Amino acid sequence: MSDPVVPRRDAARRRALRLYTLAWCLLAPLAVLRLLWRARRERAYIRGLGERFGRYTVDWRVPAGRPRLWLHAVSLGETRAAAPLLEALRRECPELGLLLTHTTPSGRAAGAELLRPGDLQAWLPYDLPWAVDAFLRHFRPQVGVLMETELWPNLAQGCAARGVALLLANARLSPRSRARWGHWPALAQATCGALSGAAAQTGGDAARLRSLGLREVVVAGNLKFDRRGDAQLRQLGRQWRTAAGVRRVLVLASTREHRGVAEEQLLLDSLPPGGLPGVLLVLVPRHIERVPALQQLLQQRGLRHGLRSAGPAHADMAVWVGDSMGEMPAYYAMADAAFIGGSLLPLGGQNLIEACAEGCPVVLGPHVFNFAQAVEQAEQAGAALRVDDAAAVWSSLLGWLQDEPALQRARQAARAFSTAHRGAAQAQAHWIARSLQRAQQDGARRQAPLRPQ
């Protein structure tokens, strides 16, 4: 007797996908308006607009017999994390043909540096069934790899229908995100059940992904530990430090806003009564479009400031605002210590590994659920401090500046922490290469002519 539960589950998944697709259809015009709004400052957002709906004019020419890998890295952080993975993959598969897709211009600009002759870049379409199908029909990848947190129901279903193995690399899923998916169990099952596998950063990430219905999950570490430092950016940071004069440098990195509250405002409101004498404060917001609002905030508080785009910091500046993209390692290289944003507000924090790689110890607020294990490991190593509020951020940063031996121990611990957890790139590349090999073998069997009986 057949199990009546299975048809009910399948029906629930189909209903969930239909509702999800309907929501996307209703929201797609708003998504386009958002692109147009962002294009006021960055025209790249509306270049190739048709690709967002599956209309492609570029062809991906990969010689017959070579593996065809598509990798999706949403934005700048994911693209940087993909760099060591692609380097290791090319060692595993020297003839690899690569299609690299993105969602943001910053990711696409960084991705252009990872291409080799014959590789191609494109925008990933919105998660609409017909756009996804057009994308897969046009490019015909054998294996797809999504970076970190990209769970798209129609994309997963489309790949499963076309026999494209879809993998989640450097995967992470916070308890908060798991709880959100828990409100839509049928949609979660339809998405994760269609994936071929995931390489999770931590055991906790793996357990949460399995609970959503993902069958093959391995724990392979965090690619961000494997990212190589950029010698040119490091040298640029040292030049900035020299230009700033004989001062200590504190960086407020990847600061964010949430529901009308800005972390910069919380931090400036909590400055010690005497200010920060002998210290240059470098403010680098997560989103560059917030810079005008931050300038207004600094002006209201009478803080002399300048922009990175206008030149190096001068000796008479109290605050230097980082309004550039792709230079975060340089800001960390010039710093004595840093605060990592997205952690004072309930946003889950930002990547601290990049700072530690430059020997820059970090202070974080209480909300670090996006990087919980890395933060815990950094704390244990002596490379990071986690505090409860903005006042404690200043207390911790100034505590390091006032205790030179403690600061040097923290800087050494940061470097040691960043090198102690490497190896994820090779592990994940080997895992992906096995899927590519299976896909090629399956394709060869399908194309082989039938032998006469």
Structural overview:
This protein has helices at residues 5-39, 76-92, 105-112, 129-139, 153-162, 175-182, 185-192, 203-211, 231-243, 263-269, 291-300, 328-333, 353-357, 372-381, 390-401, 404-420, 424-447; strands at 68-72, 97-102, 120-123, 143-147, 165-171, 197-200, 217-219, 248-255, 257-258, 261-262, 279-285, 305-307, 319-321, 337-340, 362-364, 384-386. The protein is an alpha/beta fold and 453 residues long. The chain folds into 2 domains: 8-221 and 424-438, 3-Deoxy-D-manno-octulosonic-acid transferase, N-terminal domain (Rossmann fold, 3-Layer(aba) Sandwich); 231-420, 3-Layer(aba) Sandwich (Rossmann fold), CATH 3.40.50.2000. The strands form 3 sheets. It has a 7-stranded parallel sheet with strand order 3-2-1-4-5-6-7, sandwiched between helices. Helix 2 (76-92) links the parallel strand 1 and strand 2.
Topology diagram in text:
Layout (H helix, E strand, L loop, with lengths): L4 H35 L28 E5 L3 H17 L4 E6 L2 H8 L7 E4 L5 H11 L3 E5 L5 H10 L2 E7 L3 H8 L2 H8 L4 E4 L2 H9 L5 E3 L11 H13 L4 E8 L1 E2 L2 E2 H7 L9 E7 L5 H10 L4 E3 L11 E3 L6 H6 L3 E4 L12 H5 L4 E3 L7 H10 L2 E3 L3 H12 L2 H17 L3 H24 L6
Parallel strand pairs: 1-2, 1-4, 2-3, 4-5, 5-6, 6-7, 8-11, 8-14, 11-13, 12-13, 14-15, 15-16
Antiparallel strand pairs: 9-10
Helix proportion range? 40-55%
Number of domains: 2
Question: In percent, how much strand structure appears in the residues?
Answer: 15-25%
CATH fold-level assignment of the largest domain: Rossmann fold
Give the helix tally.
17
| CATH homology-level superfamily of the largest domain | 3-Deoxy-D-manno-octulosonic-acid transferase, N-terminal domain
- Tell me, what is the CATH class of the largest domain? Alpha Beta
- What's the rounded overall pLDDT mean? 93
Do you know the CATH architecture of the largest domain? 3-Layer(aba) Sandwich
Distance between the termini: 38 Å
The description of the largest β-sheet is: 7 strands, parallel
Whole-angstrom Rg: 24 Å
Structural class: alpha/beta
According to DSSP, the number of beta strands is 16
Unreliably modeled segments: none
The shape is: globular
Q: How are the strands ordered across the major sheet? A: 3-2-1-4-5-6-7
